What we know:
0% of the residues lie in helices and 39% in strands.
Amino acid sequence: MSSSTGGNLVSLSGGGTTRILYMNTCDSDQVWTTSHCQNQDHPRLTVQNITFVNGNSSAETEYDGGGAIWVRGGRFKAVNCRFFNNFCADTGPDLGGGAIRVFSQYEGLPVYIVNCTFGGMEDYGNVGSNGGAISSIGVSWTIINSLFSYNRAIGYGANPAESGTPGGGSGGAIYNDGNTMTLTVLGSLIEYNEVNEHGSAIFFVSNDHSGNIVIDDSVIADNIGGSWYPVYDGISMHSDTLIEVTDSVIENNS
């Protein structure tokens, strides 16, 4: 991994071969600090004013996904960060997060993504089997004033994987799977992301139908590909998922 500085930003690079940041309270090799690693309030990790570029976790087999950052446990937030050309495994039914993958946040509290850019220009996007930018299982997210563009979910065969396929290909920008969870998108732009299967912008599946989505003052437009859009084009979810959209534009998604 390499680093550089300029202005008020630090750049961290995985060199196209290595994940950049890993935090896992349930990894016994890192020493457990409580008896309930999956639900503890520490450590509290904030990444701020950092560019994460060329992270690659595709060689990981146990803790897969999360090309730039992989987190389980404690609390996590990203503030004023940029994520360019990060990559995780390109196939698999339930793995992903070209840039970030998160599990097990304390008491179900949300991950905060504030004033961050994922991609932003053609050839700068992040790539993974699912969740071109971000991916999680059983985690809530609050995304504020952020940009997701030109990220891609390139797996194929969906989840569960169709017969004869490796699976994946959903959630061009965002992939959320689990039960009770909330995706909140505020003042953000999600555009020009692409999938092979479902959710060109957002894939949100609450298995027990208890999750919900809130979108306010945001634009979700011109995302490409996929199917299964029961309410809004570009957003794959159960038809009975509670979704609240205010002062937002959702258009021209396929």
